[in-house]
Structures are given as C-alpha cells and as structure tokens.
Amino acid sequence: MNLTLKVWRQKSNKAKGWFQVYQAKDVSEDMSFLEMLDVINEGLALEDSDPIAYDSDCREGICGTCCIMINGRAHGSKHGTTVCQLHMREFRDGDVLIIEPFRSSAFPVVKDLVLDRSAFDEIIQSGGYVSIDTGGAPEANTLQIPKEDSDMAMDAAACIGCGACVASCKNASAMLFVSAKLAHLSLLPQGQAEWRKRVLSMVRAMDKAGFGYCTNEGECELECPKEIKISNIARMNRQFLLALIKEQ
Amino acid sequence: MSESLRNDGRVWIPRNKGDKREPSQIPEAERLYYLEEKYPSFGNLVPRDVASRNAKAQCDAGRGVGKTGLAVYLDLRDSIARDGEDEIRERYGNLCEMYERITGEDPYKNPMRIYPAPHYTMGGLWVDYDLMSTIPGLFVLGEANFSDHGANRLGASALMQGLADGYFIIPYTIGNFLCNSSSDAVGTTHAAFADAQQGAQGKYDKILAIKGKRTVTDIHRELGLLMWNMCGMSRDDAGLRESLKRVSEIREDFWHDVTVPGTPGELNQNLEHAGRVADYLEFAELLLFDALHRKESCGGHFRLESQTEEGEALRDDENYRYVAAWEFKGVGNDPVLHKELLDFETIKLAQRSYK
C-alpha cells in the first residue's frame, strides 16, 4: 500500500515546528508502524537528510517508550495497543496520516516526535515505591490476598507510563497515570503502610509538574494502551481527601 | 514469543515435507510432534537451547511452515480442549494478544508460528561477589553482568537477576564500598572529565565526518546476520575464523563508509545508533574469539565438531570446566583469557539427556 505521511518536524524545544510531507511507498501490511517509519528514515539517511526522531525501545508494548499521535489519537486508533504494536494492516492504501508528538506543556518536545517525559519520573520519585523493609518472605498462608484484589493491583501495574492519558486529555491531566501507580501499591499489604504519605506527595508532585486536573470525561481510559480503568482515579481522589483530612 | 508458552503448547510441523495445507486441515496423523517423538520424557519442555536448535534444524531442512518457511507451529489447541479457553487466556492472555497484534491471527484458533531469535546474550561484564567490575566503584547489576548464566539463559531471568542483585546484594555491598572509599567530591573540572569529554567528542566528530554511502542500519544488519549465521545456535572452527576476518572488514567499512546525517548540537538518534554499532563491532569480535576458543558444545553454544552420536551437545568437562573472562586489550588486539574454574562439590557432571 502507499500512504501519505504528514510528520511533525521540530529541530529543538526552542525551534518552531512544521509538518513535512513524506510518501511511504510499497508498505507491507505485516510491518509495524515503527518499521514503516524506519524505512522512511533509511531513505532519508541515504539522501543525507535528517531522519525523523522518534523514541522506541522494546517494541513489544511493555516499556512505554514509544509515544506518537496518529490522526489525533494517541498510539493510533486501535484499542489497547501501543504504537510499536500497531501494524500497517490497520491502514488502507491511500490513507493520509498526520503524525505528531504527544502534546502537553509538562512534556516538552526534544526533537520531532521525541519528548522529555521526566515529569513522570519526578512523580514516581516523590513516592511511587515502598520504602519500608518488609523483612523476609512470611509463610504465604499468613498473608492471604483475595484474587480480585491482586487482579486489580496487577491491572493497575500494567501501566507503562507512556503518557497517552496526558496526551488525550483536554486538561493534560496525569491522573490516570498517578492513580494507577498508587493503586498497584495500595491494593496490596506491602504498599498499605505508607499510603497516606504516598498519595499526598505524588498528587503534589503531579501538580508541581504542571499537569491539569481530571474532569471525568474518560478519554484517558479510552486511549490507554494498557486499558487502565478510570475507577483508579476515583480511588485516588478518595484516598487523597482522607489523607488530607488526617494531615490537617 | 515467550518460552513459557511451551508449558501448554505443542510444537509440530506437517509430517509430509511440502504440505502447504492450512494447519487446521492437517489431520492428527499427519502432524509431526518432533520434540515429543525425539524426547519422549521431556517432550515440549526440553530446555530452550534444545528446542531452538531443533526448530532451526527443521526449518533448515526445508520443513518449516508459513510464507517464509522460517517457522514451526506452537499449538494451544489440546490445552484449550483440556482446560478451556478461559483458563489458557488467564495464563497467556498477554502473550497471545502480542501475537495477535503482530500477525493478525488468533492464536486461540490457529497454531502460532514461532522461530528462534537472538534475545539476550549469555554472559556479560565480569564482576566480583560484590557485583563490582574491574573498575573500582563501577557496579554492574542484573543481566549486564555475567554472574547468573551458564551456557543457557535462565527463564524469566531479566526479572530474577534484576531483583536478586538489586534487593539482596547491592544494598549491602555498595554501602561497604562507599564507607571504605575516601574520595573527595569530583567535579567536572577534574582532568579525567576533560579527557573523557574530549574522547567522546572526538569519536562523534570522527563518525559525523565520514560521510560515506552506507547507513548505520545497513552495517548493523550485515553484522547481525553474520553473527546469527556463524556464531548463533551452532558454530564451527572454519566459520568462526572466517567471521573474525569478516568482522574486521565490516569495521573497516564502518569507519570509512558510514553515513550519519544530522547537525552537531542536536538530538541525533542516528549518531547514537552509530556509537552502539561501533561497540557491537568490538563485542562481536569478542564473541567470535570466545566461541573459537571453546571447542566443546555447552548448552546454547553448540560446536558442530563436538556432538554425541545422536547429535546432541557434547561437553568437554576435562578441558573447559570454567567461565572464560576476557580482558579487553584495545581494538585490534587479542583479549587475554582469565579462567574462573567451576567447582562442583555435590553434583556429579553427566551428559544431558532428555530422551
């Protein structure tokens, strides 16, 4: 198939960006979206033009490094899929694709489609871990965890921190991300001891980084490649309020 | 796909060479479950080196399936019939979804097509029992170090070694190191920093100035294919010697004919890639050197000259019962071997058999 790509090019955070048009010819439907871009870049390198910068690492949908908007949808329109797992069979011959970086003031563009997402790291550094020493592993039957709870924790832990929730939200809110990171800890015994401290510091770090608030419209849940549920946000709000009352 | 799928998947190919029917159209009697036939006691659960080698051997013999012929079937059908699709989905849902994304096929309905591929290296940087490398203060954690692998990579070991090193070793050893070192604060004004910066800058300038005709990816692929064919699941003396020559030729090509577009001072992913490929060229040479040195077959390292009558890996415990730690002596110079003997106190070494 042949496609027309309109790709956001931007030399640096300070520079002004523009859409550059490229023709992708003879694209195989078995290629992944990133492999299609690899081929475009190989052509650009051969003619000594600057290749398109974009991030990727595992290309298995488990690391959260790739982040591209395709026709206004984070990771493209296929549900529950990162852009590295998106394959060209999802597109049709003659399609025009508008390819942009995730846009949010908390994620500055480094170059083209590459972002600086260290704001997420700062949120995790503020408390997204268990700091108490839980000692040696106890006999498993003394610490029973209902399967529903561990499933919920595992579902929240599936968050890969890609930022699709932020990119899809009109408020650029990171609350789906933060609430998933809180939930996978606070739903399990090891994470419960510090939940108050954790929710306060992570929400404050989120505000400080410049992310917006949630107004319950749910674009984040719809676009999340790992299908993180918005009910995590409700849990986070509740925990935040309880912790705040206790603090004051 | 993850090796764990073999817990419930059966590996097979059509019994008749050239049978191009859809897998669902091939009756049971015309399916060759080659692992189960060849290794009746372990069946599909043979270690990964044995499973990989056998899959590749079937494909090399022209018995592979799919468009490319570079695949064998991994079939969940019988497990689904036994345990139900929900149970199988519970166990392997994420893997099956990954497969569906890549191929557009439903692995609950059709057998998956699998083929062995390079994934991790076995071995890594030498470290002591405190996980410190030969550079004082440089600790190496997880699979970047050599310490937990034998001639096979252990299953799920990225997680296991990351956790073990990170939780149980480094919190104690690094503290000990820091307590006993009395270095003053080191700033960017230190002479060593200036040296390192100059060295890195010099390397980047050199790569950017080549302006040749071959892309970084092109050279990377040539190197990868060479290593895959000659130093992969099986290797022999002549092939390894030839490959050592080839790698130095590819290195010449790289340093004289690579093209890296981009302006200095900007993010340049091609330049990053070029730096890594330059490293891989040195690393490939080391892998070949090590493979040439080890004349026995051991796990994933299969020397064609060293096999049993049944075609299985034949170790030479008399001469090679050690970890080979190679000291880097600069590009173009042979590395120096340091042997770390493997002492087995309670286990008696024996020929592996999965029959």
Would you kindly provide a written description of the structure presented here, covering whatever features stand out?
The complex is a heterodimer of chains A (248) and B (355). Chain A has helices at 33-46, 118-125, 147-157, 164-168, 175-186, 189-192, 195-208, 219-223, 231-247; strands spanning 3-9, 18-24, 69-70, 73-74, 96-100, 109-111, 114-115. With 248 residues, chain A is an alpha+beta fold. Chain A has 2 domains: 3-111, Beta-grasp domain (Ubiquitin-like (UB roll)); 118-247, Fumarate Reductase Iron-sulfur Protein, Chain B, domain 2 (Orthogonal Bundle). In chain A, strand 3 and strand 4 form a beta hairpin. Chain A starts with a strand and ends with a helix. Chain B has 355 residues and is an alpha+beta fold. Chain B has a 4-stranded antiparallel sheet. In chain B, strands 5-6 form a two-stranded parallel sheet. A two-stranded antiparallel ribbon of chain B has the order 7-8. In chain B, strand 7 and strand 8 (336-341) form a beta hairpin. Chain A binds chain B through residues 11-12, 29-30, 32, 38, 42, 44-46, 48-51, 53, 60-61, 80-81, 85-87, 89, 110-111, 114, and chain B through 97-98, 101-104, 211, 215-218, 259-263, 266-267, 269-270.
